Amino acid sequence: MFIRALLAFIALPGFVAFVIPPLIAYADPWRGEMWLPGLVVMFVGISILLWSVRDFYVVGEGTLASWDPPQNLVMTGLYRYSRNPMYIGVLILVAGWALYLNSILLAAYTVLLGILFHLRIVMHEEPWLQSQFEDDWKDYKGQVSRWFTISGRGR
Predict the structure, then answer these.
(1) Which range (40-54, 61-75, 110-124) has the least confidence?
(2) How many domains does the chain have?
């Protein structure tokens, strides 16, 4: 299963967050000088992403890929604060690239990714989770927000 998880990581967030951003920045005619604090933002995003992928692998007993999904609903770690920390990690990582490479096109790519992630979650992932985990999903959804929960109820 480790090889499947690694391949899913490389194919999905690996491509979206590590391959595409430098290519976009390279093609950005408005790109400015590198801004080193963007590396800190990238580190935060990578940390969130890796922690979330690890929880999918260990707790969920599956991968982040729709062709090999988790067998268990993951509600631990960062998933106690957000139902989608993996997406948050990718968005923070790509925003870090945009800051580091000082690219307006990468900033626009970050916004576009956020919109596409939201649509995927609402239209595909949440209905699938409801069908797979029924009561556990309903309870979890009531306690943890789609994007970020400090305290209180989810949405």
Answers:
(1) 61-75
(2) 1
